[in-house]
Amino acid sequence: MATSAGSQQATSHGSLINLVHWEYLLPIGAVHLLACLAFLPACFSWSGVALALLGTTVFGTLGINLCYHRLLAHRSLKVPRWLEHCLATLALCSLEDTPARWVANHRLHHRHSDEPPDPHSPRDGIIWSHMGWLFRRAPQRRSGSFFELYARDILVDDYYRSLERHPTAILWIYLAHAILFGLAGLLVGRWAGGNWQAGLQLAASWVVWAAFVRTVLVWHITWSVNSLTHLFGYRTYATDEDSRNNWLVALLAMGEGWHNNHHHDPASASVQHKWWEFDATYYVILVLERLGLATDVIQPRHVRKAATTTS
Ligand SMILES: [Zn+2]
Ligand SMILES: [Zn+2]
User: For residue 228, which ligand has an atom nearest its CA?
Assistant: First the structure.
């Protein structure tokens, strides 16, 4: 009996270990721990703090909001292929999954919002929707049929397909970008401080703040869109899920917090439905459009309707 109970316990431990998505838990846990080095005076510099804040906007707005979300997941605009790949690489440097996986999970969220099989509904718990869902293995969301259904258009692209074929590529890209920050810090510190010790100190602060702290900030801001904006805020539209407009998340996530507006009209490149619902990401899209780098920008539904009526 004791042997049987023991083997049963070993089996349950084994199945628990198999349930954990270690490929996500380990890097995400490691970057959080590395970001804690920011508390060490040796890893501090004001330029590092500035880079972390600026980087949160650049990598989060251009990489995640503009590229992964509005460009790839919703096809709300078009940009030249070279620019799309540059923006997607910024997203990869945010360590938020490959384009195909991010897009497929997001499209699944829109199709089944707040009901099974929504991957990150707060109805399953706020921690689950914020980050817990990433750490539970979900083979059904790794199957060929899943990608065929939700990311077929993404995987026709050679770059995105090669990322799926080489699962560790995203980690190497992330590591390379952290090293670049380190090298830049080393050279600038050597130049400004006049010696290599100053260079090393600045390099350490730039790696910790501009890469690790910034990554953690971008993660939690993106994850807040999945968790907080399905829980807290006002609803302009009676959509058939729990999406809400949350001004705090909108401020931090450069517009993405106007999530009820987004669920009401997911195709639109803009989530600004009232003048004060400021959508910074959309203004970046408008700048790209003015520069001739963005075309076929989809306007909000009320603008599209008005245009149809007048034409
Ligand atoms: Zn949502
Ligand atoms: Zn969306």
Answer: 1
Cα of 31 from ligand 2 centre, angstroms: 26
Q: For residue 26, how far is its CA from the centre of ligand 2 (angstroms)?
A: 27
Distance 224 CA to ligand 1 centre (A): 10
Residue 258 to residue 290: CA distance in whole angstroms: 24
Query: Which ligand is nearest to the Cα of residue 281, counting in written order?
Result: 2
Q: Per residue of the chain (311 residues), what is the pLDDT tens digit?
A: 445 555 566 566 668 888 999 999 999 999 999 999 999 999 999 999 999 999 999 999 999 999 999 999 999 999 999 999 999 999 999 999 999 999 999 999 999 999 999 999 999 999 999 999 999 999 999 999 999 999 999 999 999 999 999 989 999 999 999 999 999 999 999 999 999 999 999 999 999 999 999 999 999 999 999 999 999 999 999 999 999 999 999 999 999 999 999 999 999 999 999 999 999 999 999 999 999 999 999 998 888 888 877 66
Q: What separation in Å is there between the alpha carbon of 263 and the centre of ligand 2? A: 7
Between the CA of 265 and the centroid of ligand 2 the distance, in Å, is 9
Return the ligand number nearest the Cα of 259.
1
Considering every ligand atom shown, identify the ligand nearest to the alpha carbon of residue 239 and give its number. 1
How far is ligand 1, taken at its centre, from the CA of residue 271, in Å? 13
The ligand placed nearest to the CA atom of residue 267 is 2
Dist. CA 244 → ligand 2 center (Å): 13
